[in-house]
Amino acid sequence: MTVTPSYLGGVRRLRDWLLTRDHKRIAILYLVSITVFFFVGALAIALVRLELFTPEGDVLTAETYNKAFSVHGILMVWFFLIPSIPATLGNFLIPLMIGARDLAFPRLNLLSWYIYTLGGAFTLYALLAGGVDTGWTFYTPYSTFFSNSHVFAAAAGVFVVGFSSILTGLNIVVTVHTLRTRGMHWFRLPLFVWALYATSAILLLATPVLAMTLVLMASERLFGVGIFDPALGGDPLLFQHLFWFYSHPAVYIMILPAMGVASEVITCFSRNPIFGYRMMAYAILAIALIGFMVWGHHMFTSGQSMYAGMVFSLLSFLVAIPSAIKVFNWTATLYRGEIHFDAPMIYALGFVGLFLIGGLTGLFLAALALDVHLTDTYFVISHFHYIMVGGSVMAYIGGIHFWWPKITGRRYPEFWARFAALLMFFGFNLTFFPQYILGYLGMPRRVHEYAPEFSVLNVLSSAGASLLAVAYILPLFYLGWSLRKGRRATANPWNATGLEWRTSSPPPPLNFAEQLPEVSEGPYAYDPDPQRGHL
Amino acid sequence: MKGWNWFPAGASHWAGGYDTLFFFMLALSGIAAVAVITTAVGFMFRYHHRRRVHRLGTASFQRILEYSWIGIPLLLFIVVFLWAANLYADLFFPPAGAMPVYITGKQWMWKIQHANGRREYDELHVPAGRPVVLVLTSEDVIHSLSLPALRIKRDVVPGRYTKIWFQADRPGSYHLFCAEYCGASHARMTGRLVVLPPDRFAAWLGEGEIPSLARAGEALFRQHGCSGCHGANASVRAPPLEGVFGKPVALSDGTTVVADERYIRDSILLPRKEVVGGYEPIMPSFRGQLSEAEIFKLIAYVKSLGEVPTP
Question: Does the residue A507 lie in any domain?
Fold first, then answer.
C-alpha cells in the first residue's frame, strides 16, 4: 500500500490548526473544546451530587449550590451536548460519508468554531466572575429582576454560541444538498447523514428563536423594557413559550445525531443491513417536524389553558411513535445478524436500552394528569438524563470509539474500552434510576436540602455518579495513550460499508486520494458471513 | 422509616385515581421494556458471531411488522392520552361550594389566608372530606405549590391567578414543597399540609378573634376610597358591585367577561383594560398601593356583596 499523506501530517505549527479550513481538523478543534467544557460541567455536578449525599445543606451554601447546577446545565446543554455529535463526528464524517472533499463552506466552518470559543469565553467569564444562579432555563421574572448573579454574561455566551450552531447547521444542510458524490441518491445516504441533516434543519430554524428570546430577556434586565415581568405589564409565561419553542426541539438536536451513530454501529457489528431503511429515514424527519409542535408539554402546570395542554399532550404522544419505530427497527436489525461485541457496539446497545427507558418514562410526562405530580421533580431530571446522557452521551462516546481508527489512524485498547462502556452503563443506571422513585415520592428538583426520607435513594444516586465519573475519565487515559502507542489502523478495521472506510486512516487532506468514489448501492450492504451461517 | 420510603402517602380520592393510572402506565411500559430487551438480548445470544445458526435472509413480513409497531403503540397512546386528559380536566372544575383558600407565594414563604380571616404561614390547614379550591398568586417570581400526597402541583405566577382544587380524605400531616426554582432559599420554601377532621378544622379555624377576609376587605375598600365611587351614596357614577361576582359583565368594547377573581384584580390594577359598558374610564390604578394579600381581601369583599345573608 502506498503511503498517502494524512490530514494530521505535514507542517505541525499551531497556526496550521488555528487557521485550518479542513473540516477534519476543525472537528478535532471542536472535540478538544467540548471535552474541556464537558469536564467543567461535570465538575459542577460532582459538587451537586456531593451536597445531595446528605439531606442537610452541609457542603455548599444554597447560593453556591444554585450556581453549580446552573453552570452544569448551561455548559452541558449549549457547550457540550448541542455541538457534541454535529460539530465533531458530523463535521468530520459528513463530507467523507457523502464522498466530498470538504463541507460546502470551509471558512464558515472555521468561523463557527471561533464563535463557539467566544461564547465559551463569555460563559467562563460569568462563571469566574461569580457565577449565574438562574438554572439553564433562565425563567423570568427571576432572571430579569430578582437574580443578582451574572445573568447577562451567561446569556450573552449562550446567545453567541447559538450562531456557531446556526453556521454548523447551515453548512451541513447545504453540503448534503449539493456535494453528494455520483450515485449518492438521497435514499442511499447513511442514516447518520439523514440524522445530521434533520438536526441541522432544527438548528437553523429553532436557534434564532432562542437568540431573540435572550435579547428580549436581556433588554428587560438591563433597560427595564417590560416584556416578561408582570410588574411592567409583561407575561412570564411568554418567556416559557419562547424558551421551550427552542429548547424542546433542542432535545431532538441532542438525540437525533445519537440515533444516527447507533444506526451505523449496530449495522456494522451485526453485519446486517438496517431493518426498514426508509422507515428509519422518515422517522428521523417526523421526529424533527413534530418536535417543533410539542413545546407546551413543559407547561402543563404553569397556567397554560387546559385545552392547549390537551393538544400538546396528544402531539407529544405522536412524536413518541417514530422514536418507538427506531427502537424496534434497531432490535430487528440484530435478527439473523452476526453479532460482535466490540466496544462501539456495547455503547450503541447501551444507548438503545437507556433511550428506551428514557422514552417510556417520557410517556408518563406526556400524560397530562401524571405530569401534574411528576413535573419539576426528580422524575423529570431522570427522564431527560436517560435521553441526553444515557442516550446521547453513550452514543457520542461510542461513535468516538467507532471512528477513532479513522480519525487518528490508531486502534484503542479494546479491553479498557469495553470495561468503560459497561461501567458507564451500570454507573448511569445506579445514578439515575433512583431519581425516578424520588420524583414519584415528590422530591422537587433544584434543592440543596431535602426531607430525610429521601436520603437512601440520594446516597445510591451519588454512589452511581462516582462510578460514572470513573467511566468518563477512563477514555481520556486509554484514548490518549492510543494516540502514540496504539496499533496502526488499516483503512477499514471494522470491515464496514460506507465511503469513509474507503479512504486511508487517517484520511488524506482532501479526503480521497485521487478520484471521488462513486456509489452504486444503498448503505449497509452487509451480509452475515455465509460460512458461519447456514447449518 | 427514616431515610427510606418507597411509596408516597395518598390523601385524596384523586390521588387514588392518579396512582391507578400511574401503575397502569408502569405496567404497560414495563411490559414494553421487558419485551424489547428480552428480544434484543435473545438475538444477541442467538446470533452471536461464534454461533452456527441460520442467518440467510431477513424477515419476510417486514411491512406487517412495521405497520403493527406503528399501529399498536398508537392505539395504546390514545387510550392513555384520553384517560390522563380526563383526569387532568377534573382539576380545572372545582365543585360549586368548594372552600376557597387564598395563597400568596413570596421569596421564600407561603402566606395563606382563609375566608374567615384566619392567616397562616407555610402551613395549610384544610378539612377532610370537603372540596377546597386554592387561589394562587405570587408577589415576586414564579413559585409552584406542590402537594405530593395529593399528587397535585400548580405554578404560582406573579400577575395572574392560578387555581387548583382537591378534596383531602385522610387526616394527617403531609409535605408542602415549592417545586419551581425561585432563588437562594428555594429548598427551604417548604411547609406542611395539615388535613384535619371537619370538627377539629372548624375549631382551628375559629381560634382567636379576627375579622373575616371580607370584613378586612371592606375596611380596605373604605380606606383606599373605593366606596367614594362604588358605594351606595357615591357622587361619581361607577358600576355597582353588588352581586357582580361570578356573573357576566358587558364591556364597553362589546365583549363580555365573567367577573371572576382575575377580572376583579385586573379592574383594580389595570382599570382601563376592561371597562364596563356605559361607564367612563376614569378609575385610577391601584398598582403599587395594594399587596397581593390585600387584593385577596378586596376580592373576598366583592364576593360577599352578592351573597344573601344567611338567616
Answer: no
Is B59 in CB contact (< 8 Å) with chain A? Answer: yes
| Phi-psi region at A181: left, alpha or beta (left = phi > 0; alpha = psi -120 to 50) | beta
Of the candidates A414, A419, A394, A390, the one whose C-alpha atom is nearest the C-alpha of residue A404 is: A414
Task: Summarize pLDDT for A103-144 with one digit per residue, the tens.
Answer: 999 999 999 999 999 999 999 999 989 999 999 999 999 999
Q: Is A508 contained in some domain? A: no
Residues of A in contact with B49 (CB under 8 A): 271, 338-340, 532
- Whether A10 is covered by a domain: the verdict is no
Cβ–Cβ of B184/A135 closer than 8 Å?
Answer: no
Query: Tens digit of pLDDT for each residue in B42-99?
Result: 999 999 988 888 777 655 677 888 899 899 999 999 999 999 999 999 999 999 999 9
State the Cα–Cα distance between residues A7 and A510, nearest whole angstrom. Answer: 8
Instruction: Find the residue in A nearest to B273 (Cα).
Output: A233
Nearest to A303 among B83, B107, B155 (CB): B155
pLDDT of A13 strictly over 90: no
d(CA A331, CA A348): 11
DSSP B70-130: HHHHHHHHHHHHHHHHHHHHHTT-PPTTPEEEEEEEETTEEEEEETTS-EEESEEEEETTS
Query: With an 8 Å Cβ cutoff, is A311 touching chain B?
Result: no
- Total number of domains in chain A: 1
Residues B205/B115, Cβ–Cβ less than 8 Å = no
Does the residue A513 lie in any domain?
no
In the three-class reduction of DSSP (H, G, I as helix; E, B as strand; rest coil), residue B307 is classed as coil
Kind plus residue range of the DSSP H or E element containing A394: helix A394-408
Kindly identify which residue of chain A lies nearest to residue B162, measuring between CA atoms.
A303
For chain B, which domains are there? 13-45+62-90 (no CATH), 99-206 (2.60.40.420), 213-306 (1.10.760.10)
- What CATH number does the domain containing A191 carry? 1.20.210.10
Which residues of chain A from 359 to 388 reach within 8 Å of chain B, CB to CB? 360-361, 363-364, 366-370, 372-373, 375-377
Whole-complex ipTM: 0.93
* pLDDT tens-digit map of A330-387: 999 999 899 999 999 999 999 999 999 999 999 999 999 999 999 999 999 999 999 9
The pTM of this model reads: 0.93
A300 and B88 within 8 Å at the Cβ level: the answer is yes
Gap between the Cα atoms of A300 and A206, Å rounded: 22
CB contact under 8 A, A442 and B180: no
**C-alpha cell read off for A13:** 505549527
**Full residue range of the structural domain in which residue A352 is found:** 18-502
Interface of B with A in 156-185 (CB under 8 A): 157-160, 162, 175, 177-185
A364:B29 CB<8 A: yes
User: Which positions in chain B touch A437 (Cβ < 8 Å)?
Assistant: 6
How many CB pairs below 8 A link A and B? 259
